[in-house]
Amino acid sequence: MPGRDFESIYRDYSRLVYWAAYKVLNSAGETEDAAQDVFLAVLKNMELVNGMSDAQLKGWLYRVAVNAALDMKRKNTKELLSDEPLGAEVPDTGGTPEDEAVEGDTQAEVRAALDSVDAIYREPLYMFYYSGMSVIEIAEALGINEGTVKSRMARGRKLMAKRLNARGISYE
């Protein structure tokens, strides 16, 4: 899609880049740094980016984000503490603290279950649910066929359900 500008690329793909990096780093601060590196790469390679189809661009951004996160993980052996006070960026959702704690615990359990499955099943699930990629886009980014993506996602979901059920969490 020739004629893309940086702002539209950022707007359309920042979520994909963020979650691709987050799955490697599991740290919001480091993930933001990795995402910044990815978009600097976009700026440096605008000619290349403008020659790509949307699916090619998604795959390229995903791969660059994962590589940037892996580079950052190798460089930073320990996470630096932020100077910001805890909760400075947490929006008020209007729920009670008890409700938010239960929701947070459930999300943490789901994420732990997802992180515990083999990478071959975890990667397409992250791409689908957290990066918003379609099965076709995932297949293209991973270099596999759509049926393989679907079967890996189904197997990953079953493994997650088994792990969640073992922890007493109903997952269907």
Give an account of the 3D structure.
The protein has helices at residues 6-25, 28-44, 46-50, 54-75, 97-116, 119-129, 135-142, 146-166. It has 172 residues and is an all-alpha fold. It has 2 domains: 1-79, Rna Polymerase Sigma Factor, Chain: A, CATH 1.10.1740.10; 97-172, Arc Repressor Mutant, subunit A (Orthogonal Bundle). The chain contains 8 helices and no strands.
Largest sheet, in brief, is:
none
The CATH homologous superfamily of the largest domain is named RNA polymerase sigma factor, region 2, helix turn helix motif
Query: What top-tier CATH class of the largest domain fits best?
Result: Mainly Alpha
Low-pLDDT sequence parts: 78-83
* Number of helical segments with 4 or more residues: 8
Helical proportion? over 70%
Q: How much beta, percentage-wise? A: under 5%
Taking all Cα atoms into account, the compactness measure Rg is: 18 Å
Name the average pLDDT. Answer: 81
CATH topology of the largest domain: Rna Polymerase Sigma Factor, Chain: A
Number of strands: 0
Which secondary-structure class do the elements indicate?
mainly alpha
CATH architecture title of the largest domain: Orthogonal Bundle
